[in-house]
Amino acid sequence: MAPPDPPPGPGGAADRGTARERAGAPPAPPDPRSASVVLGLAVGAFGISFGVLAVASGLTAAQACAMSLLVFTGASQFAAVGVIGGGGSTAAALGSALLLGARNGAYGLSMADVVRGRLPKRLLAAQLVIDESTAMASAQPDRTRAERGFWWAGLSVFVCWNLGTMLGALGGHAIGDPERYGLDAAFPAGFVALVVPHLRSLDGRVVAAIGVVVALLLVPVAPAGVPVLAAGASVLIGLRRGSSPPDTAELGATDGIAP
User: Fold this and answer.
1) Three-class SS string for the chain?
2) Which of 35, 99, 122, 240 is in Cβ range 3.0-4.6 Å of 30 for a Cys bridge?
3) Tens digit of each residue's pLDDT (9 = 90 or more) over 74-91
4) Is residue 81 within 8 Å of residue 56, measured between CB atoms?
5) Contact, 149 vs 136, CB < 8 A?
6) Cα–Cα distances in Å, from 236 out to 43, 98, 149, 259?
7) Going by C-beta distance under 8 Å and a sequence separation of 6 or more, which residues neighbour residue 19?
8) C-alpha distance from residue 173 to each of 48, 52, 88, 176 (Å)
9) Tens digits of per-residue pLDDT, 153-205?
10) Mean pLDDT, the chain, as a whole number?
11) What is the Cα–Cα distance from 235 to 231, expressed in whole angstroms?
């Protein structure tokens, strides 16, 4: 007879987790709702720093907010603002932003079988295809939870990022240097939290290693933005099995699709 489940209360959840590990079962996937809210808040803090830097680079508060609403990809936005702030041309800013945003095309391929429905719904989903929503969806054990994770993460990050941008743009002069408050570290910390679950699989570790090596080799010699784009191409390794829908318990742990 199997031993009874541990009683609820202090230590119960930890005991269940330990029993789960002893049985050889994979770790439980993150709850998409609570994890997405926490992630959205972290990204929102980083959005404040974008608003501050955008205004400091010469954009108006309205322009900074419009960029976050319409572009909605932090790396591309920071690249464009950095070029503009450094006196670069609009074409150079656009080119840098497009290079960094190109990885979202690969994410869209991996999400094609997760988000289903009519064209308006899929067009809305396309705006939310980012690192966080893709990673949250691919970490779920079945298609239903994957789609729920995609929408929770995408909408949470979208709302918090835009609110953060507005706060930073309107109060940038009062906030001062965002690095003084550690706002520049909020997004990388959230990103690392999403990457870690994918390192459980061999494919995930291979993709991560290739991305790191490519980035390190190109950073000293390639123009800004190119190392990130080239490293992001390693995600294609995770697509070599085809575009089968994520309907197994191994989704996220074996697909090897790094965010």
Assistant:
1) CCCCCCCCCCCHHHHHHHHHHHCCCCCCCCCHHHHHHHHHHHHHHHHHHHHHHHHHCCCCHHHHHHHHHHCCCHHHHHHHHHHHHCCCCHHHHHHHHHHHHCHHHHHHHHHCCCCCCCHHHHHHHHHCCCHHHHHHHHCCCCHHHHHHHHHHHHHHHHHHHHHHHHHHHHHHHHHCCHHHHCHHHHHHHHHHHHHHHHHHCHHHHHHHHHHHHHHHHHCCCCCCCHHHHHHHHHHHHHHCCCCCCCCCCCCCCCCCCCC
2) 35
3) 878 887 887 787 777 777
4) no
5) yes
6) 26, 18, 22, 11
7) 6
8) 12, 8, 23, 6
9) 999 999 999 999 999 999 866 665 656 666 555 555 555 655 676 677 777 78
10) 73
11) 8
Tokens describing residue 214: 């490519």
What the block records as the tokens of 151 is: 């929408």
CA dihedral 207, 153, 118, 242 (to 10 degrees): 10
CB atoms within 10 A of CB 19: 13
Exposure string over 35-56, b if 16+ CB within 10 A, otherwise e: bbeebbebbbbbbbbbbbbbbb
The answer to whether the pTM exceeds 0.90 is: no
- The position carrying tokens 């993460």 is 153
Among candidate residues 246, 30, 256, 27, the one with its CA nearest the CA of residue 149: 30
Phi/psi at 176 (nearest 5 deg)? 80, -145
